[in-house]
């Protein structure tokens, strides 16, 4: 018999990210204080930007502000270049400089990269110990094998939302919509590790509604506003909306919130759900990287 992880209710519980994000940030701030006391300087997070665009700058400024709030030394590293070949060379060089800088504990590279600059440039250059968003194959491989590495912050945020909200994954039927290497696939591996039975859907999936209707837990990371509607959901399902889309100047997720809220037992709003947790978790990954680099140093010095 399959255990039912959720119960049917008339109105969905809203899973807000802010309270959990505050808990995580408070812990990071305490860890930063201890780190500064031991080292005399704060751990550093470098945000590498290759070709600026207005929406990504808003996101990056939010990360830098969050760093400042907990005492992390956030810095923006602008990669120059007039063409893709030059940008790729400069990007690799910038990452290598940051790898060698002991004051930089973690590196993230703003996505998407400019047209013609492949993700492979980042993957080949970044030190896996500083790869706090989990894109290096070592970290991706550790996740795939079920070991501890760095996992992408967004995928981590979706899982953390489920955990901290007290939702049971063991035995649950879960559907993940989206199979990207940074969100959908890491989530599918994590949910499987948590004993959910996972179906991964994508743009070529036939009859998405039928897959969704079977699911106790639906995680949507497709970048398609209104993709999941209330009539597709099993009554009492848990809905985690990772999508961020701008529609007529407003930020919306991938789920039609009004219709889904009437059927689900719990649902994340957009904005205010997974997003705030993603930023807080990025900071906690940074702190963990700083601590692990200390341990690695001790190991080599022993
Ligand atoms: P990608 O564009 O890399 O991947 C989107 C995935 O969704 C693909 O696997 C694609 O399928 C699938 N998809 C697209 N359309 C459909 C459809 N109609 N039906 C089923 N599947 C579909 O996006 P990301 O994974 O990078 O991001 C996903 C979403 O999460 C975006 O909205 C992004 O803005 C958001 N995001 C949110 C963050 C947060 O903090 N909350 C942080 C990062 C991203 P296929 O593989 O076949 O193309």
Overview of the structural elements:
This protein has 302 residues and is α/β, with parallel strands linked by helices. It has two domains: 41-128, Leucine Dehydrogenase, chain A, domain 1 (Rossmann fold, 3-Layer(aba) Sandwich), CATH 3.40.50; 152-275, NAD(P)-binding Rossmann-like Domain (Rossmann fold). The chain has ten helices and eleven strands. The protein has a six-stranded parallel β-sheet. Helix 1 (18-39) packs parallel to helix 10, helix 3 packs parallel to helix 4 and helix 6 (153-164) runs parallel beside helix 7 (184-193). The longest helix is centred in the C-terminal third of the chain and has 28 residues, at 274-301. The chain is globular. Bound molecules: NADPH dihydro-nicotinamide-adenine-dinucleotide phosphate. Residues 154, 177-180, 182-184, 201-205, 208, 221-224, 227, 242-245, 274-275, 278 line the site of NADPH dihydro-nicotinamide-adenine-dinucleotide phosphate.
Helix content: 40-55%
Q: Tell me the CATH superfamily of the largest domain.
A: NAD(P)-binding Rossmann-like Domain
Structural class: alpha/beta
Question: What kind of sheet is the major sheet?
Answer: 6 strands, parallel
Outline, from the CA principal axes?
Answer: globular
* SSE run: EHEHEHEHHHEHEHEEEEHEH
Give start-end ranges of low-pLDDT stretches.
none
Q: Order of strands across the biggest sheet?
A: 1-11-8-7-5-6
CATH fold-level assignment of the largest domain: Rossmann fold
